[in-house]
Amino acid sequence: MDILGYGPDIRKKRKDIYKEWDELQVYHGEIILITAGSKAEGLTCAVESDRDSILVMPNAVCLEDGVDKSIIPGHMNLFEMNIQSCNAGYCRLLLTRLGPSGHPSITDSLCGDGYGRRLMSSKRFIDHFADHWRSHSEGVNNLARAGPSLPQSYGPFHIDVVSAIRCNCPGILQKWASRTRHWPSPNIVEKVIAMGAFVTPIGFKGSAHNHVEWRICFNTAETELLNNLNDTQVKIYVILKMIVNDVLKPKFKEITSYTLKNIVLWLAENNPQEWFHSGSLFHFLFEGLDRLRTALSDKQLPYYMIPERNLMAERELDVEQQGMWVRSITDMIKEGPRIIMKLEKIGHAIECHPEPLLWYSRMRTELEMLYLESNNRLLRTSDNNGQVDENDPIVKAIDKRISEIFREVLLRMQLEGSSVNDVNKLFPMMLS
Asked: What's the rounded Cα separation, in Å, for the pair 39 and 169?
């Protein structure tokens, strides 16, 4: 799995580069575009999956009931979280104070609640950004809304952008922190508490008031938690994702990476860390599969950060499909470690001759690092209008080496009988 791009060294390099990219997205000293999901966790190549990004509204924050409002600077747009009559993990945003620099997405999203108070409409909020992207995204293909995200694509790249508001909810986080646990360590628990949360524009499916409801999310905290799993735990997560994609093959996101992430987080919290090592990988992989089987059969999986929220409650599971997945998982558990041969990437790697596998792996890793570093370098050297300096000597040196890699790989593939002779086809192949 290390050769396939899931080892600790390559994961760290990816995480560092994406973190640097985020730090370059600054508005008045505040990072406003944050990489989340598998990219922030260092678990996928550039075009292997969507890039999840959180667009953080500047000068806006919502507070849990009981938090001292006087500590919030006067220029901030201030909201109060209202969880009454909302499903667990969701809230409404009551306007407490409209700052002098209110972003149009905020002022355009305000509506009345029927009792003289003003609420933020999650539907109006996401509609505002959908209209904005449609009129300001030249060369980008805007795709259909998916939950709180507005997906975009350009060439082989796919981005899921979620607009969000920062959320200060110490009560929720202290409740999470107070659980008896084996993991994470106390210093990581404190770090997670300090990171706070976000609210994103999506209500509970089926709620009569979902157009004014917001989901409470802990994206940066969950990235921190994933990045503190040990190597065996990370590989369990990766293999579970492969099993879902290659064997179970859900068509409508009935089983998502987020489902599996929560299963792995619960496994890590409830078991001593010394139990997770290379020799126990399959034991805990099958325990993870068993938990997935239970979640599917019972339609119940507690959210790791807010256990009262059931992650399966909004999944529309077909009874026949549900039964088929449960039987399939049961068969995989009975089959034992040989199930990995059913996984495309791992199966091909096991059957491949080691020398070419290692050579292509080195080339792919170097290409990926060069590509990501080039993006960051262009951003660092861009002017105030966003114009990049394509004559920058470092960018030109990176482009030269990328061209050399493509020539070397194409030549070797042709010598080995491959029909691929087009760089445009080779690029997504090598970075996925």
From this structure: 26
